[in-house]
Amino acid sequence: MSLNGKVALITGSTSGIGLGVARALAGAGADIMLNGFGEAGSIETLRAELAAEFGVRVGYNAADVSKPAQIAAMVAETATSLGSVDIMVNNAGIQFVANIEDFPADRWDQIIAINLSAVFHGMKAVIPGMKTKGWGRIINIASAHGLVASAQKVAYVAAKHGVMGATKVAAIELANTGVTANAICPGWVLTPLVEKQLQDRATKDGTTVEHQTHALVAEKQPMVKFTTPAQIGGLAVFLCSDAAATMTGVPLSIDGGWTAQ
Predict the structure, then answer these.
(1) What 3-state DSSP class applies to 179?
(2) Which residues, 6+ apart, have CB-to-CB distance to 82 below 8 Å?
(3) Which residue ranges in the chain fall short of pLDDT 50?
(4) What is the CATH number of the domain that holds 78?
(5) Which member of 156, 188, 226, 258 is catalytic?
(6) What is the pLDDT of residue 1?
(7) Is 60 a catalytic residue?
(8) For residues 87 and 3, what is the distance between their CA atoms, to the nearest angstrom?
(9) H-helix or E-strand containing 160?
(10) Does residue 259 belong to any structural domain of this protein?
């Protein structure tokens, strides 16, 4: 399908899942606003490479999505510099692991701010413009942990369940506006960060990356295979297509059977 003439804003898109989604949307013809942390020179190189590879306009905004005012300003800048925000992908997220009784209060606040509140503020900022145009796609990157729980991830699981709830509310409110809201729920995803963790674990334990991959993924997924950022990007492109025009409020699992159990 073609997304020519559409503008997509993807939070947390300088690496990992967000970058995979940005690449897929750019490959379909959408202009892109990147967002995320990183070294300025590396981000500019990435921005220029994406623009050259896909022949689309690519901008970058360094907004800290834990700050509501910065989210609103990023949306406004995207609309000014690229013309609109037709597709909003709320992807930015962080993780911290500890038992509830040991979970630091400041970590809870930080995860809720970035993984949940930022989704609310992002949707709030883009919805008026989408409704005015009569077309929009809100895609929230949730998680298998938006549907089921794991120990020691109280803030992440709570936030991702909250993302699912917020997505459903948006879907109902926007049902007859031409705007849809859906959530992608990945299981284990092979990002550069996970690749490094697997390599480090293999080195530490004197085993292979393949062994560590199996041990990690098989703990949760019947299909012992990582999802790739590119595959998640492909699903995001589908959600922007006419074929998905009546899909809204849906949790779309891409998790190797994790939540089928």
Answers:
(1) strand
(2) 7, 31, 33, 57, 59
(3) none
(4) 3.40.50.720
(5) 156
(6) 78
(7) no
(8) 10
(9) helix 154-173
(10) no
